[in-house]
User: Which sequence fits this backbone?
């Protein structure tokens, strides 16, 4: 069941946790916006891409994205998306991450989310519904983070070079090429890049290729086509990288989340 309610309609409720659901068509976009509450965004179908000025996060089905309050973010849907959201009040945010992160939605949490959509918005205190929401709040603090984020540099010149890469990714591009483009020494560039993103250039390049690939694979593009488009010499080398990061080959991974 999907309860089509928007956060602005319920944010006034004196409840620590509320749940909503919405169905969106392929290509639907939600313009940049913020919430007073922290949000756990998840979907049972489709792929969701969340972007902020700090980076991008890709959420396949059966995964979630934690979005802290006050963070401006935009949302893009790939495929038909059945979305569920949990909104946690600012007074209950202790121990929750202060930054965006993709998290694993366990089968247990998935069943709790389905139950939460049937809970009345103004549920009674000390009721079964209140106990369910309290249990979900505890589970929110145990969700394991997943490596499905891509930080953006603050430095405008390096950031623009990153955006150019995302428009036309190539796994064979090197730090030497980027430093020459930016008129920097390789050493200065690699130090600045790690300082700005928290990742080495090679790690960021790999992550960028992965996050470009995931929505395309989820949309049904062949692995071979995606791998060669990203500059991999063959599908096997792309599959090796994919399996090392996400623990399964592309087809197996998509089957797991489907």
Assistant:
């Amino acid at each position: 069941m999907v309860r089509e309610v928007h956060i602005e309609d319920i944010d006034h409720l004196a409840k620590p946790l509320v749940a909503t659901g919405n169905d969106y068509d392929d290509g639907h976009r939600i313009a940049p916006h913020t919430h007073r509450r922290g949000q756990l965004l998840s979907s049972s179908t489709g792929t969701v891409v969340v972007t902020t000025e700090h980076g991008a996060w890709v959420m396949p089905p059966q995964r979630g994205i934690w979005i802290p309050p006050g963070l401006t973010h935009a949302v893009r849907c790939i495929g038909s998306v059945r979305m569920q959201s949990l909104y946690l009040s600012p007074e209950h945010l202790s121990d929750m991450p202060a930054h965006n992160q993709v998290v694993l939605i366990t089968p247990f949490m998935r069943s709790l989310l389905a139950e939460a959509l049937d809970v009345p918005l103004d549920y009674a205190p000390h009721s079964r519904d209140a106990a369910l929401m309290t249990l979900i709040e505890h589970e929110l603090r145990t969700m394991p983070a997943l490596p499905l984020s891509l930080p953006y540099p603050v430095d405008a010149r390096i950031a623009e070079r990153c955006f150019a890469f995302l428009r036309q990714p190539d796994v064979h591009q090197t730090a030497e090429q980027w430093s020459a483009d930016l008129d920097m020494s390789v050493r200065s560039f690699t130090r600045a890049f790690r300082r700005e993103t928290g990742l080495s250039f090679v790690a960021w390049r790999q992550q960028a290729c992965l996050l470009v690939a995931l929505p395309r694979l989820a949309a049904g593009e062949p692995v071979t086509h995606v791998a060669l488009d990203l500059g991999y010499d063959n599908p096997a080398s792309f599959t090796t990288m994919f399996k090392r990061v996400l623990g399964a080959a592309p087809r197996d991974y998509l089957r797991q989340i489907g």
